[in-house]
Design brief:
The protein has helices at 45-82, 183-196, 224-232, 242-253, 277-287, 301-310, 324-336, 399-408, 419-432, 501-507; strands at 101-102, 104-111, 117-125, 138-145, 150-153, 155-160, 167-174, 204-210, 214-221, 259-266, 291-295, 314-317, 339-344, 355-362, 366-375, 390-394, 412-413, 436-446, 449-454, 482-488, 491-497, 518-523. It is α/β, with parallel strands linked by helices. A hairpin with a 3-residue loop joins strand 8 and strand 9 (214-221).
Protein backbone atom coordinates (compact mmCIF):
# COMPACT_ATOMS: atom_id res chain seq x y z
CA UNK A 1 0.00 0.00 0.00
CA UNK A 2 0.98 3.67 -0.44
CA UNK A 3 1.12 5.89 2.69
CA UNK A 4 -1.14 8.97 2.13
CA UNK A 5 1.30 11.11 4.19
CA UNK A 6 4.72 10.28 2.80
CA UNK A 7 3.77 8.55 -0.51
CA UNK A 8 6.10 5.65 0.31
CA UNK A 9 5.07 2.10 -0.60
CA UNK A 10 5.07 -0.59 1.97
CA UNK A 11 4.02 -4.19 2.19
CA UNK A 12 3.25 -3.74 5.79
CA UNK A 13 -0.43 -4.44 6.50
CA UNK A 14 -0.49 -2.95 9.95
CA UNK A 15 -2.15 0.45 10.53
CA UNK A 16 1.10 2.44 11.03
CA UNK A 17 3.42 3.30 8.14
CA UNK A 18 6.98 1.97 8.75
CA UNK A 19 8.44 5.09 7.02
CA UNK A 20 6.66 8.00 8.71
CA UNK A 21 4.97 6.23 11.63
CA UNK A 22 1.55 7.71 10.94
CA UNK A 23 -1.85 5.94 11.12
CA UNK A 24 -2.51 5.04 7.50
CA UNK A 25 -6.14 4.22 8.22
CA UNK A 26 -6.97 7.92 8.86
CA UNK A 27 -7.23 10.26 5.87
CA UNK A 28 -4.77 13.26 6.00
CA UNK A 29 -6.38 16.64 6.93
CA UNK A 30 -5.12 18.37 3.81
CA UNK A 31 -3.33 17.85 0.54
CA UNK A 32 -0.23 15.66 0.69
CA UNK A 33 3.07 17.41 1.21
CA UNK A 34 5.04 18.42 -1.84
CA UNK A 35 7.65 15.95 -2.94
CA UNK A 36 11.28 16.69 -2.03
CA UNK A 37 12.99 19.27 -4.28
CA UNK A 38 15.23 17.42 -6.74
CA UNK A 39 18.92 18.17 -6.49
CA UNK A 40 20.50 20.35 -9.15
CA UNK A 41 22.78 18.19 -11.33
CA UNK A 42 26.39 18.48 -10.24
CA UNK A 43 25.51 20.59 -7.16
CA UNK A 44 24.87 19.08 -3.74
CA UNK A 45 21.56 19.91 -2.18
CA UNK A 46 23.28 21.65 0.76
CA UNK A 47 25.06 24.04 -1.63
CA UNK A 48 21.78 25.27 -3.16
CA UNK A 49 20.34 26.11 0.27
CA UNK A 50 23.51 28.03 1.21
CA UNK A 51 23.20 30.20 -1.92
CA UNK A 52 19.61 31.28 -1.01
CA UNK A 53 20.75 32.36 2.47
CA UNK A 54 23.40 34.63 0.99
CA UNK A 55 20.87 36.37 -1.27
CA UNK A 56 18.56 37.01 1.65
CA UNK A 57 21.43 38.35 3.76
CA UNK A 58 22.49 40.74 1.00
CA UNK A 59 18.91 42.01 0.67
CA UNK A 60 18.63 42.61 4.42
CA UNK A 61 21.96 44.47 4.51
CA UNK A 62 20.87 46.62 1.57
CA UNK A 63 17.61 47.51 3.28
CA UNK A 64 19.43 48.44 6.47
CA UNK A 65 21.83 50.66 4.53
CA UNK A 66 18.90 52.41 2.82
CA UNK A 67 17.23 53.03 6.18
CA UNK A 68 20.52 54.40 7.53
CA UNK A 69 20.82 56.85 4.62
CA UNK A 70 17.24 58.06 5.17
CA UNK A 71 17.87 58.58 8.91
CA UNK A 72 21.08 60.49 8.13
CA UNK A 73 19.23 62.81 5.73
CA UNK A 74 16.54 63.49 8.34
CA UNK A 75 19.20 64.30 10.97
CA UNK A 76 21.00 66.67 8.60
CA UNK A 77 17.77 68.49 7.74
CA UNK A 78 16.88 68.82 11.41
CA UNK A 79 20.34 70.18 12.25
CA UNK A 80 19.93 72.89 9.60
CA UNK A 81 16.83 74.09 11.43
CA UNK A 82 18.52 74.09 14.84
CA UNK A 83 21.65 76.04 13.88
CA UNK A 84 19.83 78.95 12.23
CA UNK A 85 20.36 77.81 8.63
CA UNK A 86 17.87 77.96 5.78
CA UNK A 87 14.43 76.71 6.68
CA UNK A 88 12.03 74.86 4.36
CA UNK A 89 9.46 77.23 2.88
CA UNK A 90 7.85 75.64 -0.16
CA UNK A 91 4.24 74.89 0.67
CA UNK A 92 4.86 74.71 4.42
CA UNK A 93 2.51 77.57 5.23
CA UNK A 94 -0.47 75.36 4.53
CA UNK A 95 1.10 72.02 5.57
CA UNK A 96 -1.16 69.59 7.43
CA UNK A 97 -0.36 69.27 11.12
CA UNK A 98 -0.91 65.52 10.87
CA UNK A 99 -0.77 63.83 14.27
CA UNK A 100 1.32 66.62 15.84
CA UNK A 101 0.02 68.50 18.87
CA UNK A 102 -1.40 71.84 17.80
CA UNK A 103 -0.11 74.94 19.60
CA UNK A 104 -1.60 78.41 20.05
CA UNK A 105 0.48 80.92 18.07
CA UNK A 106 0.19 84.64 18.92
CA UNK A 107 1.96 87.52 17.20
CA UNK A 108 3.62 89.90 19.69
CA UNK A 109 5.80 92.43 17.86
CA UNK A 110 8.06 93.11 14.88
CA UNK A 111 11.48 94.62 14.20
CA UNK A 112 12.72 96.03 10.87
CA UNK A 113 15.77 97.88 12.20
CA UNK A 114 17.99 95.72 9.93
CA UNK A 115 15.71 95.85 6.90
CA UNK A 116 15.30 94.00 4.52
CA UNK A 117 15.72 91.52 7.37
CA UNK A 118 12.45 91.31 9.31
CA UNK A 119 12.09 89.78 12.77
CA UNK A 120 8.70 88.66 14.02
CA UNK A 121 8.15 87.64 17.64
CA UNK A 122 5.54 85.05 18.59
CA UNK A 123 4.38 83.34 21.75
CA UNK A 124 3.86 79.58 21.37
CA UNK A 125 1.54 78.09 23.98
CA UNK A 126 -0.50 74.97 24.67
CA UNK A 127 -4.25 74.91 25.31
CA UNK A 128 -3.65 75.82 28.96
CA UNK A 129 -1.70 78.94 28.01
CA UNK A 130 1.65 77.49 29.10
CA UNK A 131 4.74 78.09 26.92
CA UNK A 132 5.75 75.26 24.57
CA UNK A 133 9.41 74.32 24.11
CA UNK A 134 10.13 73.41 20.48
CA UNK A 135 13.05 71.17 19.54
CA UNK A 136 14.87 72.19 16.33
CA UNK A 137 11.93 74.34 15.15
CA UNK A 138 11.37 75.18 11.50
CA UNK A 139 9.10 77.84 10.06
CA UNK A 140 7.61 79.23 6.89
CA UNK A 141 6.42 82.73 6.03
CA UNK A 142 4.21 84.17 3.31
CA UNK A 143 4.19 87.96 3.21
CA UNK A 144 1.86 90.48 1.60
CA UNK A 145 3.03 94.12 1.46
CA UNK A 146 0.53 97.00 1.19
CA UNK A 147 -2.16 94.96 -0.52
CA UNK A 148 0.20 93.37 -3.06
CA UNK A 149 0.51 89.70 -3.88
CA UNK A 150 1.40 87.09 -1.30
CA UNK A 151 5.03 85.99 -1.61
CA UNK A 152 6.84 83.18 0.14
CA UNK A 153 9.94 84.45 1.96
CA UNK A 154 13.27 82.84 2.81
CA UNK A 155 13.64 82.07 6.50
CA UNK A 156 16.97 83.00 8.09
CA UNK A 157 16.55 81.70 11.64
CA UNK A 158 13.94 80.42 14.05
CA UNK A 159 14.94 80.58 17.71
CA UNK A 160 13.62 81.04 21.20
CA UNK A 161 14.73 84.22 22.99
CA UNK A 162 15.89 82.31 26.06
CA UNK A 163 19.73 82.10 25.98
CA UNK A 164 19.76 83.43 22.39
CA UNK A 165 18.40 86.99 22.28
CA UNK A 166 18.12 89.88 24.67
CA UNK A 167 14.90 91.28 26.07
CA UNK A 168 14.27 94.98 26.72
CA UNK A 169 12.28 95.76 29.88
CA UNK A 170 10.88 99.09 31.06
CA UNK A 171 10.25 98.77 34.80
CA UNK A 172 7.84 101.39 36.18
CA UNK A 173 7.56 101.70 39.97
CA UNK A 174 5.06 103.70 42.00
CA UNK A 175 6.99 105.66 44.62
CA UNK A 176 4.12 107.84 45.80
CA UNK A 177 3.83 108.72 49.48
CA UNK A 178 1.49 105.80 50.19
CA UNK A 179 4.37 103.40 49.42
CA UNK A 180 6.51 104.62 52.31
CA UNK A 181 5.98 101.59 54.57
CA UNK A 182 6.39 98.96 51.86
CA UNK A 183 9.12 100.65 49.84
CA UNK A 184 12.20 99.00 51.42
CA UNK A 185 10.72 95.58 50.63
CA UNK A 186 9.92 96.69 47.08
CA UNK A 187 13.51 97.85 46.61
CA UNK A 188 14.79 94.48 47.81
CA UNK A 189 12.52 92.65 45.35
CA UNK A 190 13.70 94.87 42.50
CA UNK A 191 17.37 94.26 43.35
CA UNK A 192 16.84 90.51 43.17
CA UNK A 193 14.99 90.76 39.86
CA UNK A 194 17.64 93.00 38.28
CA UNK A 195 20.34 90.50 39.23
CA UNK A 196 18.38 87.64 37.62
CA UNK A 197 18.39 89.08 34.08
CA UNK A 198 20.47 87.39 31.37
CA UNK A 199 22.77 90.24 30.39
CA UNK A 200 25.09 87.83 28.55
CA UNK A 201 22.39 87.18 25.93
CA UNK A 202 21.60 90.89 25.57
CA UNK A 203 19.00 91.72 28.22
CA UNK A 204 18.66 95.43 29.06
CA UNK A 205 16.39 97.33 31.39
CA UNK A 206 15.25 100.84 32.18
CA UNK A 207 13.97 101.93 35.59
CA UNK A 208 11.36 104.72 35.79
CA UNK A 209 9.79 105.92 39.04
CA UNK A 210 6.59 107.93 39.29
CA UNK A 211 4.81 110.05 41.87
CA UNK A 212 3.76 113.58 40.88
CA UNK A 213 6.67 113.51 38.41
CA UNK A 214 8.05 110.86 36.08
CA UNK A 215 11.74 110.25 36.74
CA UNK A 216 14.39 108.15 35.04
CA UNK A 217 16.11 106.35 37.88
CA UNK A 218 18.27 104.53 35.35
CA UNK A 219 18.15 104.89 31.58
CA UNK A 220 18.28 101.83 29.32
CA UNK A 221 21.35 99.75 30.16
CA UNK A 222 22.86 96.27 30.48
CA UNK A 223 24.88 97.32 33.55
CA UNK A 224 23.17 95.93 36.67
CA UNK A 225 25.26 98.16 38.96
CA UNK A 226 23.67 101.27 37.39
CA UNK A 227 20.21 99.79 37.78
CA UNK A 228 20.98 99.03 41.42
CA UNK A 229 22.04 102.65 41.84
CA UNK A 230 18.70 103.78 40.43
CA UNK A 231 16.85 101.53 42.87
CA UNK A 232 18.74 103.04 45.79
CA UNK A 233 17.94 106.60 44.65
CA UNK A 234 14.16 106.12 44.86
CA UNK A 235 12.33 107.60 47.85
CA UNK A 236 8.52 107.63 48.27
CA UNK A 237 6.76 110.98 48.04
CA UNK A 238 3.87 112.69 46.28
CA UNK A 239 0.86 111.57 44.25
CA UNK A 240 0.40 108.93 41.48
CA UNK A 241 0.93 109.77 37.78
CA UNK A 242 0.59 106.16 36.57
CA UNK A 243 -0.77 106.81 33.07
CA UNK A 244 1.95 109.35 32.26
CA UNK A 245 4.59 106.85 33.41
CA UNK A 246 3.04 104.11 31.26
CA UNK A 247 2.93 106.45 28.27
CA UNK A 248 6.65 107.23 28.64
CA UNK A 249 7.63 103.59 29.19
CA UNK A 250 5.61 102.34 26.22
CA UNK A 251 7.00 105.03 23.95
CA UNK A 252 10.56 104.11 24.93
CA UNK A 253 10.03 100.35 24.71
CA UNK A 254 8.25 100.58 21.36
CA UNK A 255 11.02 102.70 19.88
CA UNK A 256 13.79 100.15 20.42
CA UNK A 257 14.71 97.20 18.19
CA UNK A 258 14.02 93.64 19.25
CA UNK A 259 11.52 92.36 21.80
CA UNK A 260 10.51 94.81 24.54
CA UNK A 261 7.85 95.00 27.24
CA UNK A 262 6.64 97.23 30.06
CA UNK A 263 6.18 96.05 33.64
CA UNK A 264 4.49 98.44 36.06
CA UNK A 265 3.57 98.30 39.75
CA UNK A 266 1.16 100.64 41.54
CA UNK A 267 -0.49 100.68 44.95
CA UNK A 268 -3.27 103.11 44.08
CA UNK A 269 -5.38 104.89 41.50
CA UNK A 270 -3.99 107.44 39.09
CA UNK A 271 -4.60 110.99 40.36
CA UNK A 272 -2.01 113.15 38.59
CA UNK A 273 -1.61 112.20 34.90
CA UNK A 274 -2.13 114.29 31.80
CA UNK A 275 -2.62 111.23 29.61
CA UNK A 276 -5.65 108.92 29.86
CA UNK A 277 -5.62 105.16 30.08
CA UNK A 278 -7.26 105.02 26.62
CA UNK A 279 -4.28 106.92 25.19
CA UNK A 280 -1.97 104.46 26.92
CA UNK A 281 -3.73 101.49 25.29
CA UNK A 282 -3.73 103.16 21.86
CA UNK A 283 0.01 103.88 22.03
CA UNK A 284 0.83 100.33 23.13
CA UNK A 285 -1.26 98.87 20.31
CA UNK A 286 0.41 101.17 17.78
CA UNK A 287 3.88 100.13 18.93
CA UNK A 288 3.03 96.46 19.69
CA UNK A 289 4.24 96.68 23.29
CA UNK A 290 2.75 94.25 25.85
CA UNK A 291 2.07 95.88 29.23
CA UNK A 292 2.18 93.77 32.42
CA UNK A 293 0.56 95.39 35.46
CA UNK A 294 0.73 94.57 39.16
CA UNK A 295 -1.59 96.35 41.58
CA UNK A 296 -2.63 96.18 45.21
CA UNK A 297 -6.22 96.18 46.47
CA UNK A 298 -6.22 99.98 46.41
CA UNK A 299 -5.47 100.12 42.66
CA UNK A 300 -8.19 100.45 40.03
CA UNK A 301 -8.36 96.79 39.01
CA UNK A 302 -10.87 97.38 36.19
CA UNK A 303 -8.72 99.98 34.46
CA UNK A 304 -5.50 97.99 34.94
CA UNK A 305 -7.17 94.86 33.57
CA UNK A 306 -8.34 96.84 30.52
CA UNK A 307 -4.83 98.17 29.84
CA UNK A 308 -3.23 94.75 30.20
CA UNK A 309 -5.81 92.95 28.08
CA UNK A 310 -5.82 95.66 25.42
CA UNK A 311 -2.05 95.50 24.99
CA UNK A 312 -1.50 91.74 25.04
CA UNK A 313 -0.17 91.76 28.60
CA UNK A 314 -1.60 90.56 31.90
CA UNK A 315 -2.77 92.01 35.23
CA UNK A 316 -2.16 90.67 38.75
CA UNK A 317 -3.79 91.85 41.96
CA UNK A 318 -1.56 91.28 45.00
CA UNK A 319 -2.46 91.28 48.65
CA UNK A 320 1.16 91.58 49.78
CA UNK A 321 4.27 93.21 48.31
CA UNK A 322 6.13 89.91 48.74
CA UNK A 323 3.96 88.42 45.97
CA UNK A 324 5.57 90.77 43.44
CA UNK A 325 8.79 88.74 43.36
CA UNK A 326 7.26 85.60 41.83
CA UNK A 327 5.16 87.67 39.43
CA UNK A 328 8.24 89.46 38.07
CA UNK A 329 9.95 86.12 37.50
CA UNK A 330 6.85 84.79 35.75
CA UNK A 331 6.63 87.79 33.41
CA UNK A 332 10.29 87.42 32.52
CA UNK A 333 9.77 83.73 31.70
CA UNK A 334 6.78 84.53 29.47
CA UNK A 335 8.81 87.03 27.48
CA UNK A 336 11.97 84.93 27.17
CA UNK A 337 9.92 81.90 26.05
CA UNK A 338 8.87 83.76 22.88
CA UNK A 339 10.18 82.69 19.46
CA UNK A 340 11.70 84.93 16.81
CA UNK A 341 11.31 84.18 13.09
CA UNK A 342 13.79 86.11 10.98
CA UNK A 343 13.24 86.35 7.23
CA UNK A 344 14.26 88.36 4.16
CA UNK A 345 11.64 90.79 2.83
CA UNK A 346 11.55 92.82 -0.39
CA UNK A 347 14.56 95.21 -0.27
CA UNK A 348 12.77 97.66 -2.56
CA UNK A 349 9.70 98.01 -0.32
CA UNK A 350 9.11 100.53 2.44
CA UNK A 351 10.17 98.95 5.78
CA UNK A 352 7.24 100.67 7.47
CA UNK A 353 4.59 99.65 4.96
CA UNK A 354 1.54 97.77 6.20
CA UNK A 355 2.07 94.02 5.97
CA UNK A 356 0.17 90.77 6.37
CA UNK A 357 1.91 87.48 7.07
CA UNK A 358 0.84 83.87 7.24
CA UNK A 359 3.22 81.53 9.00
CA UNK A 360 3.80 78.13 10.53
CA UNK A 361 6.15 77.08 13.33
CA UNK A 362 6.65 73.36 13.82
CA UNK A 363 8.99 70.64 15.05
CA UNK A 364 8.74 66.85 15.36
CA UNK A 365 5.94 67.03 17.91
CA UNK A 366 4.19 70.42 17.70
CA UNK A 367 2.53 72.50 15.02
CA UNK A 368 1.20 76.06 15.04
CA UNK A 369 0.01 78.41 12.31
CA UNK A 370 -1.47 81.87 11.78
CA UNK A 371 -3.10 83.32 8.69
CA UNK A 372 -3.25 86.96 7.60
CA UNK A 373 -1.62 88.60 10.64
CA UNK A 374 -1.45 92.39 10.05
CA UNK A 375 1.44 94.49 11.34
CA UNK A 376 3.11 97.80 10.62
CA UNK A 377 6.60 98.25 12.05
CA UNK A 378 7.54 101.54 13.74
CA UNK A 379 10.83 103.48 13.51
CA UNK A 380 13.31 102.94 16.35
CA UNK A 381 15.81 105.16 18.13
CA UNK A 382 19.14 105.29 16.30
CA UNK A 383 22.44 106.82 17.32
CA UNK A 384 22.89 110.05 15.36
CA UNK A 385 26.31 110.77 13.78
CA UNK A 386 28.55 112.59 16.23
CA UNK A 387 32.26 113.24 16.61
CA UNK A 388 32.50 113.48 20.39
CA UNK A 389 30.99 112.05 23.57
CA UNK A 390 29.14 115.31 24.28
CA UNK A 391 27.01 117.39 21.93
CA UNK A 392 25.48 120.78 22.74
CA UNK A 393 22.28 121.73 20.93
CA UNK A 394 20.65 125.15 21.13
CA UNK A 395 16.89 125.16 21.78
CA UNK A 396 14.40 126.98 24.02
CA UNK A 397 12.64 123.84 25.23
CA UNK A 398 11.70 122.09 28.47
CA UNK A 399 13.87 119.54 30.30
CA UNK A 400 11.44 116.75 29.33
CA UNK A 401 11.59 117.70 25.64
CA UNK A 402 15.39 117.87 25.76
CA UNK A 403 15.58 114.45 27.41
CA UNK A 404 13.27 112.88 24.82
CA UNK A 405 15.34 114.37 21.97
CA UNK A 406 18.60 113.02 23.38
CA UNK A 407 17.10 109.54 23.78
CA UNK A 408 15.71 109.63 20.23
CA UNK A 409 19.23 110.43 18.99
CA UNK A 410 20.63 107.35 20.74
CA UNK A 411 22.03 109.13 23.81
CA UNK A 412 20.79 110.77 27.00
CA UNK A 413 21.09 114.13 28.75
CA UNK A 414 24.67 114.44 29.99
CA UNK A 415 25.65 113.42 33.49
CA UNK A 416 28.65 115.05 35.20
CA UNK A 417 30.26 112.81 37.82
CA UNK A 418 33.74 114.34 38.20
CA UNK A 419 35.62 117.63 38.10
CA UNK A 420 37.25 116.57 34.82
CA UNK A 421 33.82 116.09 33.21
CA UNK A 422 32.63 119.37 34.65
CA UNK A 423 35.55 121.20 33.06
CA UNK A 424 35.09 119.44 29.71
CA UNK A 425 31.34 120.16 29.45
CA UNK A 426 31.77 123.73 30.74
CA UNK A 427 34.36 124.44 28.06
CA UNK A 428 31.98 123.20 25.37
CA UNK A 429 29.18 125.29 26.88
CA UNK A 430 31.38 128.38 26.89
CA UNK A 431 32.16 127.91 23.21
CA UNK A 432 28.49 127.46 22.35
CA UNK A 433 27.58 131.00 23.39
CA UNK A 434 24.67 129.63 25.48
CA UNK A 435 24.16 130.24 29.19
CA UNK A 436 21.47 127.75 30.30
CA UNK A 437 21.87 124.05 29.43
CA UNK A 438 19.78 121.10 30.58
CA UNK A 439 21.76 118.14 31.96
CA UNK A 440 20.62 114.67 33.03
CA UNK A 441 19.72 114.92 36.68
CA UNK A 442 16.91 115.51 39.17
CA UNK A 443 16.45 116.63 42.71
CA UNK A 444 14.20 114.76 45.13
CA UNK A 445 13.30 115.07 48.79
CA UNK A 446 14.81 112.76 51.40
CA UNK A 447 14.47 113.40 55.12
CA UNK A 448 12.97 116.82 54.36
CA UNK A 449 16.05 117.90 52.40
CA UNK A 450 16.80 118.10 48.68
CA UNK A 451 19.30 115.71 47.13
CA UNK A 452 20.39 115.06 43.56
CA UNK A 453 20.49 111.91 41.44
CA UNK A 454 21.50 111.15 37.86
CA UNK A 455 19.12 109.67 35.28
CA UNK A 456 21.69 106.93 34.59
CA UNK A 457 21.88 105.57 38.14
CA UNK A 458 25.48 106.78 38.43
CA UNK A 459 26.96 107.85 41.74
CA UNK A 460 26.12 111.44 42.76
CA UNK A 461 29.03 112.02 45.13
CA UNK A 462 30.44 114.85 42.98
CA UNK A 463 28.43 118.10 42.72
CA UNK A 464 28.89 121.71 41.57
CA UNK A 465 25.83 123.50 42.97
CA UNK A 466 25.50 127.27 42.79
CA UNK A 467 25.45 128.73 46.33
CA UNK A 468 22.02 128.22 47.88
CA UNK A 469 21.02 125.48 45.44
CA UNK A 470 19.20 123.15 45.13
CA UNK A 471 16.24 125.18 46.30
CA UNK A 472 13.48 122.85 45.08
CA UNK A 473 11.12 125.80 44.44
CA UNK A 474 11.15 128.79 42.09
CA UNK A 475 10.40 132.31 43.32
CA UNK A 476 6.71 131.88 42.50
CA UNK A 477 6.54 128.59 44.38
CA UNK A 478 6.70 126.31 41.31
CA UNK A 479 8.53 123.04 42.14
CA UNK A 480 12.05 122.73 40.70
CA UNK A 481 13.31 119.19 40.13
CA UNK A 482 15.43 119.29 36.95
CA UNK A 483 19.16 119.99 36.71
CA UNK A 484 20.53 122.85 34.67
CA UNK A 485 24.12 123.87 33.97
CA UNK A 486 24.22 127.67 34.00
CA UNK A 487 26.74 130.49 33.80
CA UNK A 488 26.36 133.12 36.52
CA UNK A 489 28.92 135.90 36.97
CA UNK A 490 31.28 134.12 34.59
CA UNK A 491 31.24 130.81 36.49
CA UNK A 492 29.53 127.56 35.43
CA UNK A 493 27.58 125.76 38.16
CA UNK A 494 24.39 123.75 38.73
CA UNK A 495 20.88 124.86 39.53
CA UNK A 496 17.61 122.96 40.01
CA UNK A 497 14.99 124.40 37.70
CA UNK A 498 11.33 124.09 36.78
CA UNK A 499 10.63 121.87 33.76
CA UNK A 500 8.84 124.51 31.67
CA UNK A 501 11.07 127.55 32.21
CA UNK A 502 11.04 128.08 28.43
CA UNK A 503 7.26 128.58 28.48
CA UNK A 504 7.38 130.71 31.60
CA UNK A 505 10.02 132.96 30.00
CA UNK A 506 7.62 133.83 27.19
CA UNK A 507 4.96 135.09 29.56
CA UNK A 508 6.95 136.29 32.56
CA UNK A 509 9.14 139.31 31.76
CA UNK A 510 11.26 138.52 34.81
CA UNK A 511 12.47 135.33 33.03
CA UNK A 512 12.97 136.71 29.51
CA UNK A 513 16.76 136.43 29.88
CA UNK A 514 16.38 132.68 29.19
CA UNK A 515 15.05 133.23 25.65
CA UNK A 516 17.64 132.52 22.97
CA UNK A 517 20.23 131.41 25.53
CA UNK A 518 18.95 127.90 26.26
CA UNK A 519 20.05 124.50 25.06
CA UNK A 520 20.87 120.99 26.24
CA UNK A 521 23.86 118.63 26.41
CA UNK A 522 23.51 115.12 24.93
CA UNK A 523 25.92 112.38 25.97
CA UNK A 524 26.62 109.26 23.89
CA UNK A 525 27.94 106.21 25.71
CA UNK A 526 29.19 104.61 22.49
Amino acid sequence: MVCPYCNQESTNTIRFCPHCGRDVTVAPPGPPPAPPRPATPGVPVGAVKKSNTGVIAIAVIGALLLIGVIVLIVILLASRGSDGGSQPVGGNVSVDAGDKTRTQLRFVTSDVSDYPTVRLYFSVEDDNGDPVLLTSPTAAIKEQISGGGEVERTIRTVEQLDKNQGLGIDILIDKSGSMETDFPQMQSILRTFINSLDYASGDKAELIAFDDLIMYMCTYTDDPSLLQGGISNMTPDGATALYDALYMGINNAGSRPGANCVIAFTDGEDNESIHTYSEVIALAQNKDVPVYLIGTDDADAGVLESIATGTGGKYWNVGAISDVSDILSGIYTIQKDMYCIEYDSDPGADPYAARNVSCTITDDFYFGDLTGVPFTAVPVFTVQPHTARYEIIAADISWTEASDLCISRGGHLATITSQAEMEQVSALAENSGLKYLWIGGYTSIRNNAAYGHWITGEDFSYSAWYPGEPSRNDRDGTPEAYLMLWRVEGVWSWNDQRNDVDTAARTDTRLKYFIGKMGYVCEYED
